[in-house]
Amino acid sequence: MAKAKKSREGTVMVLGGGIAGVQAALDLTDLGYYVYLVEKSPAIGGVMAQLDKTFPTNDCSL
Amino acid sequence: MVEAGRSPNIEILTNADLISLKGKPGSFKADIVQRPRYINADDCTACGLCTTYCPRHQEDDYNEGLNITRPIHIDYPQAVPATYYIDPRSCLHLTHDTCQICVPVCQSKAIDFSQQPEEMTLEVGAVIMSPGFGRISEETLAKYSYGKHPDVVTSIEFERLLNPSGPFAGEVRCLSDNRHPHKIAFIQCVGSRDIGCNNGYCSSVCCMYAIKEAMVAKEHNPEADITVYYMDIRTQGKDFDAAQKRALDKGIKFVRAKVADIMPWGDHLRLTYSTLDGKHNFKPFDMVVLSVGLESPPDAQKLADMGGFKLNKYDFCATDTFTPLATSKDGILVAGAFNGPMDIPESVTQSSGAAGIAAGLIKKQRGKSLIHKTYPDEKEMGDDVRIGVFVCHCGINISSVVDVPKVSDYAGDMDGVVYYTESLYSCSQDAQEVLKDKIKEHNLNRVVIAACSPRTHEPLFQETLKDAGLNRSLFEMVNIRDQCSWVHANEPDAATDKSKDLVRMAVAKARHIQPLPEQTVPVTKSGLVVGGGIGGLTAALNLADQGFNCALVEKQDTLGGNYKKLDHTKELIAQVKKNKLVTVYTNSELQQTSGFVGNFSSIISSGKGAKVKETTLDHGVIIIATGANEHRPETVLGNTVKYSQNIVTQSELALQLEGKGKSRAPKSVVMIQCAGSRGDDLNYCSKTCCTTAVENALTIKKINPDSQVIMLYRDIRTYGYAEDLYQEARQKGVLFIPYEMDNKPSFAEKGGKITVSFFDPILQDDITMNPQMVALSVGMVPEETDTLSKLLKVPVTADKFFLEAHVKLRPVELPVAGVYVCGLAHSPKPVNEIIVQAQAASAKAAMPLVKGYVTVDPIVSNVDKGTCIGCRLCTSLCPYQAIQMVKDENNKPKAETIVASCKACGICASHCPTFAISMGGFTNEQINSQIEAFGSGIKEKEAA
Predict the structure, then answer these.
(1) In terms of CA atoms, which chain B residue is nearest residue A4?
(2) CB count, 10 Å around CB of B84?
(3) For testing the chain B interface, which of A9, A31, A36, A44 should be mutated: the one with the most B CBs within 10 Å?
């Protein structure tokens, strides 16, 4: 198996792409860092993406 | 989510597992294996044709297995990345080497069964662990007949049943026979507060989500008869009690009871429960929802071993009260439910805080890998209107209903349209190249695309316009899929007509659209923190850690606030004093602030009387950390309170317990919870009092095990791990007795003798006793917020706490850009949560400072000063304080938009009595021409 290497300064790995991971990744880019967002399932969003409306604004959670 | 998918600086590695993690802050090496999707992300257009043809069924995990999907699918249409995938567990080709029907079906040739797992090593400076939470085991759920009866569902299954994209398209139906359930029971604390399954902790979120689900179920069916069975209702979060009250008002019933079992009973379920008075009751239900708790993630131990950090006894990540986001390994941070059960706002807050700390750790590497995209110069517009119209088939999503060639030809006949075409997928990579070429070839200066939703695809097309040298505002999108072909699937002719109408209107608008400048405003790279308690100190130090100057303003003559006596606070104060980037102003108050995000100017007044000194500071951001104070109500539950040696608050009791000698612990004490909170005097729950009271009770029992401690409560809210303390207190003999608001306890002190009376629901009798002491759990009130609220023009709640911009997704930002809040000024909370919030607020505040400028969305409002009559209606209505009054050359007042603060909501423009305000991209001219174009179509039809 070929092994790729990603070597850059100023990067952060976020493990888990639920609401917490996504928020951390977005904030890190705004603070000046490149982010690898590592998620085990085929899509990010986690459990929040399964929720209907969220309290108290009843916003769609997507 | 979409934002993360679009950011050039976030590389999303899905289907990826961490294999090993080694290193130290600044240089970690992470080995990752990415499992194949069997579909090329670059080619997949998410059209869905493959799923329609796939012959195999499998359970739909996204819908909790409540309906079926196919091995080749996407979880939901808005998924990021919007790429289908093949589930290797059930795909016929991957399990039996047959089928492959999908391969020729896919028109963009995206399916690739030759994909292999890819291994890669990431070299990173810091790591944030946010793996989320795990599920309560089936074994625990089986105790509630889950798995034995289909109408016993988990709360997450119920969530899917409520969801319009769920198994019954948003209809709640019994899984046994598809009937609509009329009687629904919620059972709280399933897999939480349950030593039987080794989850002694409270999951903190279930009460609130059960209330939400019950309310949404009521919206679906107002006649539904819903009962929530609970031990304690733990709605301790900001404004959560109000939500429970709304639920009660809607007729949702709450019963304090232990559920014994759930058994099938004809085609119903029979629920057996026992109430406090010791009675057993039975009730029939159509559906029972289990409010399942949050478990540690299944791979927690593996992650901890790889990362070299510790877990706590419940297998969540171990963290310390004063460093709540740090794992035990330097450089590895933790955020979200892996750091203990928590709700969405708290997860979001933790994420921002962890991002800020990570940023501080590797600040020397800041910006080194950031990708800044560059674009060609915008070309001259010229005088001619040259519109290009592109109509999309979206595979067959649109073209199976709408006659796309007809719509495209129709557009070709319209004024100003110089080019028109159709495309199979306008959003595909090659279509972007075509779009760029056509803009150049035909010298287009406006583009109309009739396709899907602008919500998902407008930014992509605007990006392409920019690549082609066109301003991104010269774009108009028409949604002929979601709003046309999908909803009118059975009326192809009418749908085609509607598509024509929509395209005609868009072209009419496009004739009037103009390029709008992308504005940026420079930023003063320093911060101002108001309040020098534990929150303010943490926030100021964090800003300094990230390399920014910061002024810390404290009203009192010393720093430290409520937590002055903690060693951690003393340490923070020492650090702040040492830090060259932080300037401390004690005995000082914020007098005046003007300006806007990135460019504030404030006057600080220091000292008192004749010696008052004023300092003017320029700063880019403001963090409010003004805190709260102990509430001292004069009446508690209808009893007049005379505070004395023997009638004390919990904090006074704690002070007394700090001394020496056995006598410092009272021989008998009655603690009264919610003394002045939750509608007694204050409307809200003060969140910390239950835990504080339990801690005091335990200290008393430790000093003198023979002391009698009785706690009168409404709901014990020792959420999270504090539940352990509550259990311990019960084991040590502290008596917990609930009271109701229609039968309140009474207490009085007469001649040094205290008398307390209350109703004991277990004995079913009134009790009168004479304890040595009464300790009142009095809650907290925010430090005066009105002045600051007026000064900074930021809103407060009815309870006088600062109101955040978005309760869930922007929990530390205030609606005015550049102003942030943390700590008790936001809402009551314990010290670890204050620290997290301070870390989050400083991370958010650092963002404009890091960037050095603020970008402004071009669709902001714009005042025509000639037409403006200076009536100030717009300034009074603007929710973001983004309009200021200025004097024109004739000294007349005129409104002016502060573009950096404007959110383009359009309230000002819609209310301006002289139509002096227009919104970029939504001018009156543009909207009127759209409406006229719609009307002209009707006229044409009538004439025909």
Answers:
(1) B120
(2) 28
(3) A31
Number of residues that this document lists for chain A: 62
Q: Which CATH number is B630-781 given? A: 3.50.50.60
Q: Strand B10-13 vs strand A34-38: parallel, antiparallel, or unpaired?
A: parallel
Architecture of the domain defined by B522-625+793-848: 3-Layer(bba) Sandwich (3.50)
Q: Which residue of A has its CA nearest to B307?
A: A15
pLDDT tens across B425-457, in order? 888 777 888 999 999 999 999 999 999 888 778
For residues B930 and B895, the answer to whether their CB atoms sit within 8 Å is no
Size of interface A-B (CB pairs under 8 A): 269
The total number of structural domains in chain A stands at 1
Check: CB of residue B646 under 8 Å from CB of residue B773.
yes
Distances (CA, A) of B62 to B161, B174, B296, B853: 12, 19, 20, 41
Task: Confirm whether A49 is domain-assigned.
Answer: yes
Asked whether B608 and B622 are in contact (CB, 8 A), the reply is no
Judged by CB atoms closer than 8 Å, whether chains meet at B359 and A19 is answered as: no
Is some CB atom of chain A closer than 8 A to the CB atom of B142? no
Residue B713, Ramachandran bin (φ over 0: left; ψ between -120 and 50: alpha; else beta): beta
Domain-embedded: residue A6: no
Taking only the tens place, the pLDDT of each residue in B128-176 is: 999 999 999 999 999 999 999 999 999 999 999 998 778 888 889 999 9
B132 and A20 within 8 Å at the Cβ level: the answer is yes
Q: How many CB atoms lie within 10 A of CB B105?
A: 15
Which pairing describes strands B183-190 and B332-334: parallel, antiparallel, or unpaired? unpaired
A2 lies in some domain: no
Q: Where are the alpha helices (DSSP H) in B658-809?
A: 689-703, 723-731, 786-792
ipTM of this complex prediction, to 2 decimal places? 0.93
Residue with tokens 């709605």: B235
Per-domain residue ranges for chain B?
2-126, 138-292, 387-510, 522-625+793-848, 630-781, 855-926
Q: How far apart are CA B496 and CA B492, in angstroms?
A: 6
B350 at A interface, C-beta within 8 A: yes
Domain B855-926 CATH class label: alpha beta
Contact across the interface for A16 and B131, Cβ inside 8 Å? yes
Q: Is A5 among the domain residues?
A: no
Q: Do B656 and B669 meet the contact criterion of CB atoms below 8 Å apart?
A: no
CATH of domain B138-292: 3.50.50.60
Tell me how far apart the alpha carbons of residues B476 and B479 are, in angstroms, rounded to a whole number: 10
Distance (Å, whole) CA B809 – CA B345? 6
Identify the three-state secondary structure at position B200. Answer: coil
